[in-house]
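Support reply, case 0932

Customer input (verbatim):
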Amino acid sequence: MLVDPTDEAATQQFGVPFRVGEKIVIAVEWVLARVGLLERFFRFLGEGMPEDVRADLHREAFRPAVVVTQGRQARTFLTELHAWRGDPPVLPDVPVTVISGSLADGMPRRVRDAATAAGRYRAAQSRQGRHVVAACSGHCIPATESDLIAAEIRRLVLPPVG
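Our regenerated output:
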């Protein structure tokens, strides 16, 4: 199962504007983390989660070290992902579900539409592929529609009833 993945079929992420934007976002997030304000922008991630999960998020998820890790990943991730455009991984014949967000929260509508189209394409590459659109979510589907993810996991692993 892939939940709103970054996919090589969404080509706009390989362009200069996307990469410059990513660097700006990481730099701003690092400053916000350093001054203790990053959590204010992502507090919604803990809404509806158990208290211990919210405490873990508060203690760990908004630290400068997290943003440093994000920056390190950004140095090579898109280049490595782009390599799959010419040499995609071969998947075995297994069920593949791709869940895409539908709301353009924090990203331009054209980027959201391209990401959703890439999810649809990725699912279509597998004989047992399935594309599901999370109607009430943007990129943070685990925080906004965890029940949808759980239902898809159950569908994949449990035998059909009847």
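We compared this against your earlier run and they match. Two observations from our side: The chain has one domain: 2-157. The chain is about 55% helix and 10% strand. Please reopen the case if you see a mismatch on your end.
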